[in-house]
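ok so I'm stuck.
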Amino acid sequence: MRVVLAQPRGFCAGVERAIEIVERALEKYGPPIYVRHEIVHNRHVVERLRAKGAHFVDEIDEIPKGSVTIFSAHGVASAIEERAADRGLPVIDATCPLVSKVHIEGQRYANQDREIILIGHAGHPEIVGTMGRINGRVHLISTPEEVRRLDVADPDKLAFITQTTLSVDDTRAVIEALKARFPTIVGPDTKDICYATQNRQRAARELAKIVDVVLVVGAPNSSNSNRLREIAAESGVPSHLIEDARALDPSWIENAMVVGITAGASAPAELVEEVIHRLRELTEVELSVLPGVSENVRFRMPSQLADVAN
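replied:
not stuck anymore, here's the structure
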């Protein structure tokens, strides 16, 4: 069996930074460290950090006063920051810089007295955080059909922003519908979209062209991992989202000559290696990597942790 790996796949710079923040904080301050929500959407990552002394909580009120607190890569609402300050929690912010950029853009548009159209998925932690960072009216939509139902105060005072785990391709139809109905709407340039989301989706689409089945390594609650599976499936190829090697059903690959593997932005490389090892237990494997973008992005550490060695 030929096994082809997508390139790029797995961890993006924002996820690497968030995980490293927790590890550096544990090294500098010692356990326990408290993290609001999962630092990233991957159970294996969370369990590994929990074993080192990280405590993951749903609410700020669960954190003992004075305890070192980390906000997840998805970002938080301003009210959460205020609540942490009220409780005297020393906070380290692991929000992905690209998510923070969306927050800044949204507030900048709101300061221009524009209503904000936020393109994203209701209930996703990033969306909850973004909506809670903008002082103004925000409309959340995810499909072109919802554009027709928008009720806005002034059609000439609108702006749009997007969830970072959506790519240019994901948002194109919605943005086109917005511009058709509201010709004066403004928004960020497409180059501002999350590079990692776009790169991984493009790689998944290319992978699906040359394989018989696609395996996407990622958590079931990972938005970007689910989207990778959908993209491969849209290409007409059987596609499966698996959390780890144990979730691999041998029947999926019985008649496959070529199996493609990719991974969501919060999936560690070792999970992909374990899937390859499992395939090798089932049959002889010839491994190759699909040519693709080589990412070398690295985000700066928060000032509190700049003095801690990697």
